[in-house]
What we know:
Largest sheet: 14 strands, antiparallel
Amino acid sequence: xxxxxxxxxxxxxxxxxxxxxxxxxxxGPPGKAFLFGGAGMSAAIRAMEQTCQRPVxxxxxxxLSFARTDSIVDFDVREVTRGNTISQxxxxxHIGDQEILTVxxxxxxxxxxxxxxxxxxxxxxxxxxxxVKHWRxxxxxxxxxxxxxxxxxxxxxxxxxxxxxxxxxxxxxxxxRQGLVATSDLLAVIADFVPQATSHALGYHAGGNSLDNTVxxxxxxxxxxxxxxxxxxxxENAITHGSIHLFSPDGVLMATCSQSLILRVxxxxx
Length: 270
C-alpha cells in the first residue's frame, strides 16, 4: 500500500513531476469532472518537499483553471532562494502551456520554541459520531476515498433544516479509506474541505469552487482520524471566505487553513 494519497510521478528532471488526472482525484458532475483543488495543492507540496528535501512550513495556492479527467498535469518546482534552514519555493502546475495553479511556499526546519493556543472543539470521538457521505454520493470521486463522521453542524448530504446558522461552524472527523496517516500532502487535500460548511452556514444546499487556499502546518502526528473544525466566516457578493483547523484526536493542531471560493447554490437534497 502506498504511503501517499496521490500517484505523483517523477521525471528525469528532479524539478519536474507529473500527476495523471484519474477519476479518484476529481470532483464535479459526471462528464465534467476536474482535478480537486486540494489534490493539486497536495501534489505541489509533495513535489516541493521531494525536490528541496525540506518539510513544508506554509503554502498558498491560486487556482487558475480546470484540469479535466484523463489529462496530465506537470508540476515545475523552482527553489527561488535557499537559506541555511529555509527555502522559498514556487511551483507552476500546467497542462502544456496552460497554467492550472500556482503555489508559493516556504520549506525548512528550525530548532526552537513550540507551543499551541488554539484548542480543538469538544466533540465525541469518531466511533460515537454519525457516518455521512458526500452529497454527490461519492462514486469514483476523491470524496469516495474518505470516511466522514459528523461531530457538529449539518453536513451537506443531509436535509438542511432550521435556516441560517448562527456560527457557520461544521465539525467532522475524516480519515482516508486507504488507512493513510496524516502527512503534509494528505492534510493539504483535507484543507480544501472548507466548502462543506457552506450549507450549514446558509441553511440551504450550497458549496463553491476554490479561488485560493493557504495552509500553515504545525506538528503533524501519525494519526488516521483527523478532526476538521470548519467555519464559514463571511460571504460577500457571492464570494465565500472560510477556514479550517485540522487536529489530531489528542488535540494537536496539525494545520490551519483559509480560503475563498465562488459560491454555488445546489438543488435541495431528497
